[in-house]
Amino acid sequence: MDSDHDRSSAGGGKDVWPQALNRPAEAQDTPEAIPPTPPAPVPVPVPDPSATGRGIAGLSFPYQLAAALALSLIGLLACTQVAMVFLHVAPSNTLSKQHGKTIDRWIYPEFEQNWKLFAPNPLQQNVAVHVRAEVVGADGRRTTRWMNLTYEDGEQIRGNFFPSHVDQNELRRGWDFYVNSHDSENRPSGLRGDLSERYVRRITMLRLSERDYGGTIERIQLRSATSSIAPPPWSNEKISTRPVYRVLPWWTVTPEDLPERDADQDRDEARGVEENQ
User: Fold this and answer.
1) d(CA 202, CA 253)
2) Which residues pair with 132 in a beta bridge?
3) Packing angle between helix 171-180 and helix 191-208, nearest 10 degrees?
4) pTM of the full predicted structure?
5) Closest Cα partner for 153 from 143, 165, 136, 142?
6) How far, in Å, CA of 84 to CA of 86, rounded?
7) pLDDT tens for each residue of 73-103
8) Cβ neighbours of residue 228 closer than 8 Å, sequence gap 6 or more
9) Which residues, including other chains, have CB under 8 Å from residue 199's CB and lie 6 or more apart?
10) For residues 182 and 248, is the Cβ–Cβ distance under 8 A?
């Protein structure tokens, strides 16, 4: 027995602890488990004192005061504009009756409104403006036929992708201006009536100056032909489409009604008068 024990000891003790050789490598002579290292703390950014006070707060006191006054003024104007437009398009009420003139001064002419918010009434009529002239020439005095100025404007607009603002609105707005500032007897109501009459006369003479009648135009007469638009076929509404005429009195043409002439033409005429003298 002693010899066997010695022999085992001399062989390095391989037969004494066989289970120690069969353990996993990581378990051999391994100390106790070491806890993981905690992450390093993230530094908290310190706010830059120069970055605070952006916008109006970053301005000096005088500039802050000026900015506050400017913003207050803009807000006041915006509120006033909204209130004036609302009172203008709203039905008649106590405020609009009491401050009607103030509202009209604000709205016209910069912010003119031609529609009603609560009672829309689209145009359902065709209005044409006609003119005829009394011409004095070598063959005496004669009266031209009625000329449809509105039809001529329509021909300039029809098929034109970029129609002129003059062709679309000059005559139409001028006639509306006249009608709204005169009564049914063509009597002007206030200063706007006289202004609208002079405006229509100048528009008419500007159109007639493009024609040659073989004489001098001394008087002009205008009229309007208003006809209702026919209802659609599916409607049971019965409307007469016959035109209704509003004939204005004859107007004597004055130098103020004539369009501006070229300076060279004036000099030529003055030279001719001197030569005849």
Assistant:
1) 9
2) 221
3) 150
4) 0.52
5) 165
6) 5
7) 999 999 999 998 888 888 888 888 888 888 8
8) 124, 125, 126, 239, 240, 241
9) 174, 177, 178
10) no
